[in-house]
């Protein structure tokens, strides 16, 4: 487990149980389909999304204990996320994920598509069995958002006309939507009022956007060992993220390289160097910090309240990944 921060100690047991349950929840009759679906769960990952569910649960019921429905929601959230990764890797033709070979690289594309579909279906089954219609509606919308995000991303490959607002919208669909929706669903399961649900949703939305921006920064500056996939993967696939968008300003060489779709040897190396030597990384970090500040503001903390302290620490943890 990646989390060593003290504020994750109260949920460490829940995360350990989640790791065990994720593999037992996958009950495909076909052994190849089971192996494909189970592959990424065994590889681990940050588990940020279920961790946030547990922390929101503890904050909204004001207890270190969580409800069984919260625990199942955390599992559903990670299943949906993993399903989206399998499909993402097919579309982007990624060879590795979480430091291991991608599912379609081990098996084949057809098996990987079926494995992703199977996980989405499995998550829908468990979601329906939560017995809370509002939570079901909110989480179900996420799967629609994933598709919208993928369509936007693939239509905008190597497109230099995309704006920061286009990038933020796509980032919401692909990342922040699931985190925001799971935060609201957690608050609903805790039977909180609508005001609290809205605040928690906005917290998740801005944390999710910050997380995606930081992830895009790491894709530029990180090593393959740390990322679990080759650095610059987004740019190789024509996905122009925040650091590149900022770096493109008054940089004709970078613009020319991207316009020709990195078609010449060493283009990716040159492009990454141009982005690293610009203000793009710093501006992207600043934008992530703005969203983290918005997330903190969404909690509307009272000076004498520490109910949401751990959720504030999540914001600090996300930003620390690039400091």
UniProtKB/TrEMBL annotation:
The UniProt record lists the keyword Cell inner membrane = no
Q: Where is the signal peptide?
A: none
Could you tell me which Pfam families the record lists for this protein? polyprenyl_synt (PF00348)
Molecular-function annotations in GO = metal ion binding; prenyltransferase activity
| InterPro entries named among the record's database cross-references | Isoprenoid_synthase_dom_sf, Polyprenyl_synt, Polyprenyl_synt_CS
Q: Which cofactor does it need?
A: Mg(2+)
UniProt entry keywords in alphabetical sequence: Isoprene biosynthesis, Magnesium, Metal-binding, Plastid, Transferase
A single BP term in Gene Ontology:
quinone biosynthetic process
Which PANTHER family does UniProt cross-reference here? ALL TRANS-POLYPRENYL-DIPHOSPHATE SYNTHASE PDSS1 (PTHR12001:SF69), GERANYLGERANYL PYROPHOSPHATE SYNTHASE (PTHR12001)
Q: What family does the database annotate? A: Belongs to the FPP/GGPP synthase family.
UniProt-recorded name of the protein: Prenyl transferase
Naturally occurring in which organism (per UniProt): Apophlaea sinclairii
């Amino acid at each position: 487990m990646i989390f060593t921060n003290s504020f994750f100690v109260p949920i460490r047991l829940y995360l350990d149980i989640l790791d065990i349950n994720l593999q037992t929840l996958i009950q495909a009759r076909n052994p190849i389909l089971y192996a494909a679906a189970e592959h990424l769960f065994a590889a681990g990952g940050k588990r940020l999304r279920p961790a946030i569910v547990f922390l929101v649960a503890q904050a909204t019921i004001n207890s270190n204990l969580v409800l069984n429905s919260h625990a199942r929601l955390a599992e559903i959230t990670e299943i949906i996320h993993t399903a989206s990764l399998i499909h993402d890797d097919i579309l982007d033709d990624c060879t590795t994920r979480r430091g291991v070979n991608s599912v379609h690289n081990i098996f084949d594309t057809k098996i990987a598509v079926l494995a992703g579909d199977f996980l989405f279906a499995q998550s829908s089954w468990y979601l329906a069995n939560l017995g809370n219609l509002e939570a079901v509606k909110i989480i179900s919308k996420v799967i629609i958002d994933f598709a919208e995000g993928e369509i936007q991303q693939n239509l905008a490959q190597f497109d230099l006309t995309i704006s920061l607002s286009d990038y933020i919208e796509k980032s919401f669909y692909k990342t922040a939507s699931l985190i925001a929706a799971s935060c609201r669903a957690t608050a609903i399961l805790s039977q909180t009022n609508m005001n609290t649900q809205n605040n928690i949703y906005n917290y998740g939305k801005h944390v999710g956007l910050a997380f995606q921006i930081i992830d895009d920064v790491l894709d530029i500056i990180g090593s393959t060992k740390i990322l679990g996939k080759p650095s610059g993967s987004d740019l190789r696939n024509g996905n122009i993220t925040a650091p590149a968008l900022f770096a493109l300003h008054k940089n004709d060489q970078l613009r020319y390289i991207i316009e020709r779709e990195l078609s010449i040897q060493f283009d990716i190396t040159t492009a990454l160097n141009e982005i690293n030597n610009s203000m793009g990384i710093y501006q992207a970090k600043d934008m992530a910090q703005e969203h983290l500040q918005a997330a903190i503001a969404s909690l509307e903390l009272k000076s004498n309240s520490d109910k949401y302290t751990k959720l504030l620490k999540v914001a600090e943890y996300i930003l620390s990944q690039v400091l």
